[in-house]
Amino acid sequence: MKKPTMTTFLKSERDGAVLTLTMSQPETRNALTGNSAVEEFVQACAAITRDRTIRAVILTAEGPIFSSGGNVKDMQRYYTQNLSPEVIREEYRNGIQRLPKALYNLDVPVIAAVNGPAIGAGLDLTCMCDIRIASEKATFAESFVKVGIVPGDGGAWLLPRVVGMSKASEMAFTGEAITAQEALVCGLVSRVVPHESLLEEARKLAGKIAANPGGVLRMTKRLLREGERSTLESLLEISASYQAIAHMTSDHQEAVRAFVEKRPPKFGD
Question: Which pLDDT does position 77 carry in this prediction?
Answer without folding.
Answer: 84
